[in-house]
């Protein structure tokens, strides 16, 4: 209590108290003053003699604490008086504006300070728009009675998806609006017909009788409503090219009774220059029958077995990866990203033969909001979250695949880990396998973390020890996010907007810090300024 009281005491009160003490000493004779001090010292010695060692340590600690508190209060008062500090002086509202600007080379909307590269790479990414949804399906997404459908959209999509979604979903306790997975993610496709004494599922349901299809789907998913499921089923049978592919494949199997023949959907069926977004009935070049002695042209081809116990993994580089898994987003079977896609010239539109279109560029363009047309991805709520996680895994998988297949470009054999493993191995390194080196440019790799550690040491060496540890958070209910949501949506339904708003606010804060510390002035270009 005394320490707190002395800490609150300002300099004027302390000066008055010290002045009164000096006056008392001036009115006393030297003998009286010495007698007073002797009495005080005698009382202190008697008090310490009656105290145990533990009590003496506690009293010493309390005395030191009081001294530190008083010293801190004096220094704080001096700094406050010198700077005339007020917390309100450091509160500055940040306004990033509305997302009402348009990219130069496409019709996508953006915030004022967002770069052109986040959508179309300055016009080099040119994709056909997603076709408009059929009227009945559009009504489910936008109609006045869409609440049940959107709340259970993942269930409806699971009932009509043609490939299984293989992953371990991480479910946190309590209410959790986010979609999380653990481990590896993959899509798998089964045979056209189920084995004996087994119920049809996934793509097998599409080749049975219509009424039996509804019964089978409702048997697996009880939360669906029969009229809505019947509407979706009718749309997919009439419009989806892959549903027609399954029916055609079964007809080809019946026309070719050879026991080992296989129907194949080619990953490269589209002729060069053909329209990417077409959704007509599959032609003979899309489905072919392979005899026992024939092999698929590509390891990305989808082999449709008539009846088989095994499951086939659909490659992430196959254009059918997305439409087979998300029929509600792509009811016509619109092709997704393909490894053969190229960037195009911003003016002429001609493909750049030596520049591939990465999945990150493709999906960044796909999830953009545009002035015209309906992007069903942005209305998908929980299914949109699953779609983003799925494509994020695809992006990471392609990056890892590139590093695995291009170790020679990284000169990985010259890394110390190879020499150390060969030196410590008993057989001279002949049995070490094939280690894959992740460079420092790969986010999250050990060399990436080590490089960041060295950067931090460089900061301290160049500028001294840090004074502040700053963290940035984003309010999900902020006006910047809520103003861009569609009717009935919450912030967790549109993680794309939350990320874009956070990046805008973070750029402003980092710019202010650089301006205050002058890091972007004389030291620009140094490693610690990047």
Order of helices and strands: HHHHEEHHHEEHHHEEEEHEEHHHHHHH
Which secondary-structure class do the elements indicate?
mainly alpha
DSSP strand (E) fraction? 5-15%
What is the molecular shape? elongated
> What is the alpha-carbon Rg in Å?
35 Å
Number of helices, where a helix is a run of at least 4 consecutive DSSP H or I residues: 18
What's the helical proportion of residues? 40-55%
User: Largest sheet, described in full?
Assistant: 3 strands, antiparallel
Distance between the termini: 49 Å
Topology:
Elements: H1 2-8, H2 11-27, H3 30-49, H4 53-83, E1 101-102, E2 109-110, H5 135-142, H6 147-151, H7 153-160, E3 164-169, E4 181-189, H8 210-220, H9 226-239, H10 241-255, E5 262-265, E6 287-290, E7 302-304, E8 312-313, H11 321-325, E9 342-344, E10 351-356, H12 359-366, H13 382-405, H14 407-410, H15 416-424, H16 446-463, H17 479-482, H18 495-517
Helix pairs in contact: 1-4, 8-9
């Amino acid at each position: 209590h005394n320490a707190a009281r002395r800490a609150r005491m300002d300099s004027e009160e302390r000066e008055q108290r010290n002045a009164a003490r000096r006056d008392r000493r001036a009115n006393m004779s030297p003998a009286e003053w010495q007698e007073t001090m002797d009495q005080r010292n005698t009382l202190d010695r008697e008090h310490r003699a009656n105290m145990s060692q533990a009590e003496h340590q506690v009293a010493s600690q309390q005395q030191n604490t009081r001294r530190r508190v008083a010293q801190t209060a004096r220094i704080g008062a001096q700094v406050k008086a010198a700077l005339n500090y007020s917390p309100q002086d450091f509160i500055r509202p940040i306004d990033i504006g509305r997302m009402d600007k348009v990219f130069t080379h496409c019709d996508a909307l953006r915030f004022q300070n967002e770069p052109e590269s986040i959508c179309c790479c300055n016009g080099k990414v040119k994709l056909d728009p997603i076709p408009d949804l059929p009227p009945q399906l559009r009504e489910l997404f936008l109609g006045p009675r869409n609440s049940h459908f959107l709340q259970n959209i993942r269930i409806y999509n699971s009932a009509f998806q043609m490939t299984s979604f293989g992953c371990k979903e991480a479910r946190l306790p309590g209410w959790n609006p986010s979609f999380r997975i653990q481990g590896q993610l993959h899509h798998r496709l089964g045979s056209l017909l189920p084995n004996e004494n087994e119920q049809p599922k996934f793509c097998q349901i599409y080749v049975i009788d219509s009424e039996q299809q509804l019964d089978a789907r409702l048997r697996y998913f009880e939360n669906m409503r029969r009229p809505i499921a019947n509407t979706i089923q009718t749309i997919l049978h009439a419009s989806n090219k892959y549903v027609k592919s399954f029916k055609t494949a079964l007809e080809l199997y019946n026309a070719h009774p050879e026991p080992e023949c296989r129907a194949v959907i080619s990953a490269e069926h589209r002729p060069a220059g053909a329209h990417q977004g077409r959704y007509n009935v599959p032609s003979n070049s899309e489905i072919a029958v392979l005899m026992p002695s024939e092999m698929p042209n590509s390891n990305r081809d989808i082999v449709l077995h008539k009846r088989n116990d095994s499951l086939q993994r659909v490659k992430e580089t196959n254009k059918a990866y997305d439409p087979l898994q998300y029929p509600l987003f792509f009811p016509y079977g619109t092709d997704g990203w393909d490894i053969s896609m190229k960037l195009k010239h911003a003016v002429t539109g001609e493909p750049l033969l030596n520049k591939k279109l990465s999945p990150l560029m493709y999906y960044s363009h796909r999830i953009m909001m545009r002035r015209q047309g309906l992007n069903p991805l942005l209305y998908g709520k929980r299914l949109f979250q699953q779609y983003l996680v799925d494509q994020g895994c695809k992006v990471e998988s392609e990056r890892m695949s590139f590093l695995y297949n291009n170790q020679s470009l990284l000169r990985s054999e010259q890394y110390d880990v190879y020499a150390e493993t060969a030196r410590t191995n008993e057989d001279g390194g002949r049995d070490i396998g094939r280690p894959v080196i992740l460079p420092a440019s790969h986010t999250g790799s050990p060399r990436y973390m080590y490089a960041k550690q060295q950067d931090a040491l460089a900061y301290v060496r160049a500028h001294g020890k840090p004074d502040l540890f700053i963290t940035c958070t984003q309010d999900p209910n902020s006006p910047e996010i809520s103003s861009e949501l569609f009717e009935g949506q919450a912030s967790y339904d549109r993680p794309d907007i939350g990320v874009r708003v956070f990046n805008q606010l973070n750029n402003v804060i980092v710019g202010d810090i650089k301006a205050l510390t002058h890091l972007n002035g004389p030291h620009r270009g140094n490693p610690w300024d990047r």
